Amino acid sequence: MNLQIAVDVADTDRVLEIAGQIHDIIDIYEVGTPVIMKEGMVPVRALKEKYPELTVLADSKIVDGGALECEDICKNGADIVTVLALSDNATITEVVNTAHKYGRKVLADLICVSDIAARAPELLSLGVDLIGVHTGVDMQKNGKTPLGDLKELVSAIPAKHAAVAGGVNLQTISDYCHLNPEIIIAGGALYNAPDIREAVILMKHAMAQSEKP
């Protein structure tokens, strides 16, 4: 299992500041949608220039113009690109083909997909590398978590293709680890912690403990 930090701040300087504390211990560093919406690929490019060995995910949430959008993201250094699973299959295929041409991976975000069991295998057949269940911030306010969705996902596809995001924290992470997804994504629980590095270390330790037989 890999730990991904989802940095949903809207400031490149803050993105770089957080990376400076954890670039050597985090598995995947997600440049969140807020800063991409505000500053485009600037933070992605800056991260890869400063930390070339860091695996960077650009949470671009592509929904149309697949090839053009994906090419720009790949050229700016992102290792993983996200596309909305709700997108047309033609868009997803263009994203996959373009990302793979550049040696990058694609994560399809299942946010708002109602039939995970049907859509997830279809996405794999289109060439998507990873599929993530995602409970959005607004949905979390109503008490929803992604645990049930993750159970449905790993029943439909191999867990090595699965990712989970949406309110994951140190108190709940073991519930997700037991389902053995490839990627566990945590956001505010990490980057809002008083000591971000320590928070990442503790979460990775909890993941390692859960992986033990």
Task: Describe this structure as you would to a colleague.
With about 210 residues, the chain is of the alpha/beta class. The chain has one domain: Aldolase class I (TIM Barrel, Alpha-Beta Barrel). The chain contains 11 helices and 8 strands. The protein has an 8-stranded parallel barrel, surrounded by 8 helices. Helix 5 links the parallel strand 4 and strand 5. The longest helix is centred in the last third of the chain and has 16 residues. The two termini are about 15 Å apart. The mean pLDDT is about 95.
List the topology elements:
Elements: E1 2-7, H1 12-22, E2 28-31, H2 33-39, H3 42-50, E3 56-62, H4 66-75, E4 80-84, H5 89-101, E5 105-109, H6 116-125, E6 130-134, H7 137-140, H8 147-156, E7 162-165, H9 173-177, E8 183-186, H10 188-191, H11 196-211
Parallel strand pairs: 1-2, 1-8, 2-3, 3-4, 4-5, 5-6, 6-7, 7-8
Helix pairs in contact: 1-3, 4-5, 6-8
